[in-house]
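Structure, all two chains, one model.
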Amino acid sequence: MRWKWVYIEDVSRHAGEDVEVRGWLFNKRSSGKIRFLLIRDGTGVLQATIFSPEKCHPLFAQFDALTQESSLIVRGRVRQDKRAPGGYELEIADMETVQIARDYPISPKEHSTAFLMEHRHLWLRSRKQHAVLQVRAELIRAIRDFFDGRGFRLMDTPILTPSACEGTTTLFETQYFDQKAFLSQSGQLYNEATAMAFGKVYCFGPTFRAEKSKTRRHLIEFWMVEPEVAFASLEDIIELAEDLVLFILGRVLSRRRQELDILERDTKPLERIKKPFPRITYDEAVQLLKQKGSAITWGNDFGAPEETMMSEIFDLPVCVTHFPAAIKAFYMQPAPERPDVVLGVDMLASEGFGEIIGGGQRIHDLGLLEKRLKEHNLPRQAYEWYIDLRQYGSVPHAGFGLGVERTLAWLCRIKHIRETIPFPRLLYRIYP
RNA sequence: UCCUCGGUAGCUCAAUCGGCAGAGCGGGUGGCUGUUAACCACUAGGUUCCAGGUUCGAGUCCUGGCCGAGGAGCCA
């Protein structure tokens, strides 16, 4: 007979049927005349059993030879059983060993972070890491569905760029034939051009920052989605950011419950998030933080302790607006009648996870943009095309960037951002 | 880049005042008719990160180096 190859996530639909499962040995146990195999195939974990009153059953010998992470194909009948994890198990009739794994280094007991990072290529198979990356895939799909559903056009901005978008000190330099090029830190400047061509756009890709930062919330290479909308104001863009976050939350909470359970994520703090999120200006935030005992003074950016304090004051994500112009990028539009602050917004996630979104309104006036470039000592020739946008039907416009890994860390309540991407690039680690 | 802590069996850790190198897990062997990180018995397994120094004697003390972790600044 022909055995039907099924994935473990679909196994409950095949109760009573003969099927084939292809996967890896997650764990095994035995008790006299009965043997248990926990098999994973990437979509789930299934318990399979071998039962025989004969001690010398050939399948028993095959079972005994299996080691953790050995690859195998099992065939048998699916049966509903309350005693099995997941409620279904496979009664093995036939088993094929594909390869015996020798000394798999990650045991079911505890390991240090350093050891696990060294074995990241195998750590991905572990239950919690697997769950986090399942949520990541869902998060990315939700982001795309959100923007596509609202008529945004996906614009792929370049990764190799001739100039800096923000500071030049944090750029990765590379050779571009006989000239220098830099790895992109953001697609924003290019998106300002595509927004003038398509009205509302987004880019979604990897970004690179050569910052020597060694914290739980920094990656050297990370993914960012950046919408940009022509004719939009700060107000418009904040609402867009709120809608995006709510859409993502809805998707992940409805479709990835099981993974959040595996991660022991208490979902109540996420479930109570509703529009509108609290909004405060930078001025108000500084006042609040001072009352809470922070040493912050006007004109300084928030540090990690300030972000933690903010999430102790509010139990929803918070939008902080109107930052001092001096601590923000050259392209930020100054507030009307208050030129020392800009129409920018940072969204701080709840539960102490800090900034997940940064954005705002961009300068659309030619003269002001030229003035700012000079003040920031940026080479005009590298920005000619960008300046050009202000000469041909310039309009107010706004956008933001959302960091995928930080958002995922918040959703999964993962302490360190290194677990939110399959192969993290960190300050002192580029292997594996 | 700065501050703090750490490096002992494949892994996670212990080793009192400087005095015989130890446990659990994993591996191996055997047992057990429903296990849930199964359990029980036995068993193999060591360049104590590297180089130098002090000492009768160093995993332990000193000097230098290498590697890692936690935190800070910067940022999404």
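The radius of gyration of chain A is 26 Å.
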